[in-house]
Amino acid sequence: MSEPVISVIVATLGTRFTELKRMLETLENQTYKHFEVIIVLQNEQDYWSDILTTYHVQTKLVITSKRGLSKARNIGLSHATGDIITFGDDDCWYDAATFSHVVASFQTGKDVISLNMYDPDRQKFGRRQRIQTATYLTKRELMSRSSIEIFVKRCCLEANQHGPRIRFDEVFGLGGDYISGEENIFLADLHRQSYRTYFHPELLVYHAVRPRLTRLTTEQVVSKGPLFKRMYNAPTAFVLLSVFCLKKRQTKLFWKVLKEMWNYQPRGER
């Protein structure tokens, strides 16, 4: 049996030269060599074709004028040929053995796995470590995952007996109508089709962890209503939104957020 191929989809504006080169170097150093890198360059000026030839990894450069993180990842998915898909940021990087451990986990029957984001410079995780042991995540726990932590079998994303194909909802994510939540929706859509996410707290993907904001922006708060409605349904979203606004002390924005949730009509792929 042939070894599974990993497709690493990287959406980038192409301006983070140092960071993307670091990522490519850590990919070049992977002990597991069966992977491809698909770089979706959201910039009509091609700075990268010549640079990519200096790395001993299989790369595809896709240039698009379309802006938006979810759009770029969906474009990358259309070019992916691997058995396992992951979505790297241009400023994340990996330990040399990461892909070997990922493949070993999938070989035990997993459909979706999540790594753990960690900043080795600040020695901080991307979020509080409430889950200390490897386990399947509940739908609620999917809210805390980041896109760069996700690895998924490509067959789970295509239309099959479980449901329609799954892609990123382009209304959400940087460059969309709402600035975040696209990875939570992506995992929730997989969960809805009975593909559960298995969390490996011991497997790390490296990324700078910025200091936590003491106060959310209005844009971030307003996006929560549509996000909850997209992931659940209107009644559940109302309850979650009420709890969120109370917990985050955003009661002054409650009616504005509620109106945004009410007006939002899910149109992403389900």
TrEMBL record:
Keywords: Transferase
Pfam families, alphabetized: Glycos_transf_2
InterPro entries tied to this protein: Glyco_trans_2-like (IPR001173), Glycosyltransf_2 (IPR050834), Nucleotide-diphossugar_trans (IPR029044)
Signal sequence bounds: none
Record bears the keyword Electron transport: no
Cross-referenced Gene3D superfamilies: Spore Coat Polysaccharide Biosynthesis Protein SpsA, Chain A (3.90.550.10)
Keyword Transferase annotated: yes
Stretches assigned to the Glycosyltransferase 2-like domain: 7-140
One GO MF term: transferase activity
Spans through the membrane: none
Name of this protein: Glycosyltransferase family 2 protein
Organism: Listeria booriae
